[in-house]
Amino acid sequence: YKLLYFNIMGLGEPIRYMLSYLGEDFEDNRINDYRKWQTQIKPKMPFGKLPLLEIDDKKVHQTIAICRYLGKKAKLVGDNDWEDLEIDIIIDTLSDFRSAIWSYYYNRDEENKKRVKEPLFNVTIPLYLGKFDNIIKVNGYLANGKLSWADIYFVAILEYFSFMIEQDIVTNYESIRQLSDKIHSIPNIKKWLDKRPSTEW
């Protein structure tokens, strides 16, 4: 496995977590030169996006699709179609949440950013995190009451979310913190955390 992404956690980290969970050795190739990315690397990407994972000389992209594939390899999927649906619902809801945060964080219109900040921070963020926290509180995990690739994806991307909203999600929501601790205590993931490069997000 060869992973290509920027020198951040971001959308690459869920893939790194999943590969680590599987105990797979992988090349963690990180781009530091933004100009090189724009001029030399981006034009060669399938849709001009990262992360990109190379599997047996085949190049694939899209974090969620890759994590779902690795989840199947790890047997962290549902026992039937309905359970897989429950996992996908969580993942798609997380994507909605991420889109809401992204539209704020990457908004270059400062006036518009000020207008959307209050409803985002006072309504949207507490709504999503409160519901995720309650699901975990009731069921122990995000889907089907058992560990799935959705839990690993969620925990892996939390630091990225926390960076963008400038709040420590894990500290503010007890059940989310407990799930995060549970995922981080998985031996292979703990090994990754101990050796991964230190980045702000």
From TrEMBL:
<dbReference type="Pfam" id="PF14497">
    <property type="entry name" value="GST_C_3"/>
</dbReference>
<dbReference type="Pfam" id="PF02798">
    <property type="entry name" value="GST_N"/>
</dbReference>
<dbReference type="InterPro" id="IPR040079">
    <property type="entry name" value="Glutathione_S-Trfase"/>
</dbReference>
<dbReference type="InterPro" id="IPR004045">
    <property type="entry name" value="Glutathione_S-Trfase_N"/>
</dbReference>
<feature type="domain" description="GST C-terminal">
    <location>
        <begin position="80"/>
        <end position="201"/>
    </location>
</feature>
<dbReference type="InterPro" id="IPR050213">
    <property type="entry name" value="GST_superfamily"/>
</dbReference>
<dbReference type="GO" id="GO:0006749">
    <property type="term" value="P:glutathione metabolic process"/>
</dbReference>
<dbReference type="InterPro" id="IPR010987">
    <property type="entry name" value="Glutathione-S-Trfase_C-like"/>
</dbReference>
<protein>
    <recommendedName>
        <fullName>glutathione transferase</fullName>
        <ecNumber>2.5.1.18</ecNumber>
    </recommendedName>
</protein>
<feature type="domain" description="GST N-terminal">
    <location>
        <begin position="1"/>
        <end position="78"/>
    </location>
</feature>
<dbReference type="InterPro" id="IPR036249">
    <property type="entry name" value="Thioredoxin-like_sf"/>
</dbReference>
<keyword id="KW-0808">Transferase</keyword>
<dbReference type="GO" id="GO:0004364">
    <property type="term" value="F:glutathione transferase activity"/>
</dbReference>
<dbReference type="InterPro" id="IPR004046">
    <property type="entry name" value="GST_C"/>
</dbReference>
<comment type="similarity">
    <text>Belongs to the GST superfamily. Sigma family.</text>
</comment>
<dbReference type="InterPro" id="IPR036282">
    <property type="entry name" value="Glutathione-S-Trfase_C_sf"/>
</dbReference>
